[in-house]
């Protein structure tokens, strides 16, 4: 009788572990993964210039990516990387992304700007950012403003709540640039930084001796078996690209383009590029047929979506 009981318990544990219903790490609490920001960054965040990116100054991995040390080790344990997640376990089923905003952290204008970022992504993809309903959704994004800088996990963590932080600021400053909000939402739906791409060394030179000591991880790459560019070329103009002087010791370039920029600006935060939109649609929308979803045609002008 006892042996039968143990056998049942054993089977139950196997099933439980298989469907990931057991706590898998000390990072089940999404707030426990967020690192404290450095005093230098805290100071810089107070006096951001018009071209400064708050996401570089947020004290997380690569500036604004919330990852456990185990995930960082996995990320760096390969020579190659692309920029979007392959594993469906990290994607949002059906492109439905439940989110809620801690409204007491923000002004009404800031709350509506966060929604505007989500709406802008909906305009050009099949993604749908919906209000979190605990009766319907298991996993969801909580947008907070209480943390330092801006940051997000990459993809759906699958552990219930996950944090996306946007430190309050005037609209179009710091974390409240519309396309910094979109940058963080793009992390949350599964995209890494463009300069980490597998093929980046064909497109940019990383000037290692100009990078601030201790920030080299910002230029690390990830396993090509884990991520995909969805068949879209390297993109200097991506909203996920960092500027050429990122993490520089003296303001000189740390990322030098090796090919013609074709009018693109590395590190821009004024629009989703055509390739950003293509990658999002390739990741989430290639099997979606809906007349309500704008058709993204690489041969046509997308200007209307960017304004
Ligand atoms: Zn980022």
From TrEMBL:
UniProt EC number: 3.4.24.-
Signal peptide: 1-21
The keyword Protease is assigned to this record: yes
Peptidase M12A domain location: 80-286
MF (Gene Ontology): metalloendopeptidase activity; zinc ion binding
UniProt entry tagged with the keyword Ubl conjugation: no
A GO BP annotation: proteolysis
Gene3D superfamilies recorded: Collagenase (Catalytic Domain)
The record's free-text note on cofactor binding: Binds 1 zinc ion per subunit.
Name of the top EC class for this enzyme: hydrolase
Cofactor(s) named in the record: Zn(2+)
Active-site residue numbers: 184
Segments passing through the bilayer: none
Residues the record lists as binding Zn(2+): 183, 187, 193
Domain of life: Eukaryota
InterPro entries reported for this sequence: Astacin-like_dom, MetalloPept_cat_dom_sf, Peptidase_M12A, Peptidase_Metallo
Keyword set, alphabetical order: Hydrolase, Metal-binding, Metalloprotease, Protease, Signal, Zinc
Protein name per its UniProtKB record: Metalloendopeptidase
């Amino acid at each position: 009788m006892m042996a039968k009981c143990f056998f049942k318990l054993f089977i139950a544990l196997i099933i439980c572990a298989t469907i990931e219903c057991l706590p898998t790490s000390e990072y089940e609490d999404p707030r426990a993964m967020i690192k404290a920001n450095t005093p230098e960054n805290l100071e810089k965040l107070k006096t951001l210039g018009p071209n400064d990116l708050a996401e570089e100054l947020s004290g997380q991995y690569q500036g604004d990516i919330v990852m456990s040390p185990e995930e960082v080790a996995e990320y760096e344990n390969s020579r190659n990387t692309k920029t979007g997640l392959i594993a469906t376990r990290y994607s949002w089923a059906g492109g439905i992304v439940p989110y809620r905003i801690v409204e007491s952290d923000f002004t009404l204008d800031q709350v509506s700007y966060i929604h505007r970022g989500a709406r802008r992504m909906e305009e050009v993809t099949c993604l749908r950012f919906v209000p979190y309903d605990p009766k319907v959704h298991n996993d969801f994004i909580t947008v907070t403003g209480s943390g330092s800088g801006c940051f997000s996990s990459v993809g759906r963590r699958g552990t219930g709540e996950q944090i996306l932080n946007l430190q309050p600021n005037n609209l179009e400053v710091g974390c409240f640039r519309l396309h910094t909000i979109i940058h963080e939402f793009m992390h949350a739906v599964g995209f890494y930084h463009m300069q980490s791409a597998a093929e980046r060394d064909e497109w940019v030179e990383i000037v290692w001796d100009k990078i601030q000591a201790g920030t080299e991880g910002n230029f690390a790459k990830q396993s090509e078996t884990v991520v995909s560019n969805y068949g879209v070329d390297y993109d200097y103009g991506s909203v996920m690209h960092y500027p050429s002087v990122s993490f520089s010791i003296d303001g000189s370039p740390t990322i030098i383009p090796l090919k013609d920029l074709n009018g693109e600006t590395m590190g821009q935060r004024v629009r989703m590029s055509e390739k950003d939109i293509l990658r999002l649609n390739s990741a989430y929308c290639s099997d979606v047929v809906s007349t309500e979803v704008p058709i993204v045609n690489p041969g046509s002008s997308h200007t209307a979506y960017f304004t």
